[in-house]
Amino acid sequence: MVEALLATARAARNRAYAPYSRFPVGAAMLTAEGAVITGANIENASSGMTVCAERLAVMTAVHAGFRSFQKIALVADCNPPASPCGACLQVLWELAGSIEVIMGNLENKVLIKPLQELYPYPFGASLWPENPVNDHYFNLAENWRVPALFHPVGYLSNGFDDPGHIPGQYKELFSQVVIAPEYEEGLYRIEEEERIHLIAYLHKVTGYTLKERRSGRGNEVYGVFACRAPLRPNAIAQTTVELIDRNKNVLTVKGADLINGTPILDLKTIMPVK
Ligand code: THU
């Protein structure tokens, strides 16, 4: 799990906004439930406004509903690996407690310390235990409006790189579904299936229309929820493929209408029709 978390932090680093320091940092938090939530440093011309990778990760995770954490990994291009700044240690302490802090660099040097060792005397809120913020201040019935956060479990690999040009004969073409090694056990007995559903995130898609002419439906006008168009409010794809072969964490499938590198969110079996 340490290597997987570091790999996710390295990927999160690609989404840093660090034009001033040119020192991108990525962070990945592992929640108690096993979800992985990322952050990267987001800088500002007004320097003091910069948010570090670790704080973005833990605050994003808390806002996504997670309250309990196991580990955080961070990756930057320096040697020795960077440790969280004082502000991040304070924030991590309050929101995550004494988690394991995994510090890595691009040369695969790794340092692991409990947060408590990096920050032995944190400042706590025990001075005001009567915190008035309580759930009844919130309208929980509206919670469904809050965006949901997913962490892909793998990706699709094939020769189609252009989202505009999935070959017409895609139903005959093969792809690999590469599941991250830490999720491999979840494939147990998948060989028993002839066909499976892939749930994917269409990562190259931007924007949508609710109602327009749909090329896939005879160029007639249909609502987005009445067709399979990729430009949707949530760019989620569901596609049914033939399962050809499994080699450890790699499935060979036939018929995926998804481009190379598409993140896979889930695999599901097909509901038996009685
Ligand atoms: N930074 C982090 O994101 N995490 C750390 O642990 C150390 C520093 C960022 C803040 C700023 O954008 C840049 O690195 C240089 O300080």
- Proportion in β-strands: 25-35%
Using only CA atoms, what is the Rg? Answer: 22 Å
Give the overall shape: globular
Order of helices and strands: HEEHEHEEHEEEEEEEE
Question: Spatial order of the strands in the main sheet?
Answer: 6-7-12-11-8-13
Total strand segments:
13
CATH class of the largest domain: Alpha Beta
List keywords for this structure.
single chain, 274 residues, alpha+beta, Cytidine Deaminase, domain 2, Elongation Factor Tu (Ef-tu), domain 3, 2 domains, six-stranded antiparallel barrel, five-stranded mixed sheet, 4 helices, globular, binds tetrahydrodeoxyuridine
Description:
This protein is of the alpha+beta class. The protein folds into 2 domains: 2-145, Cytidine Deaminase, domain 2, CATH 3.40.140; 154-269, Elongation Factor Tu (Ef-tu), domain 3 (Beta Barrel). The protein is built from 4 helices and 13 strands. The strands form 3 sheets. It has a 6-stranded antiparallel β-barrel with strand order 6-7-12-11-8-13. The longest helix has 12 residues, at 2-13. The two termini are 40 Å apart. The model has no long low-confidence stretch (mean pLDDT 93). It binds tetrahydrodeoxyuridine.
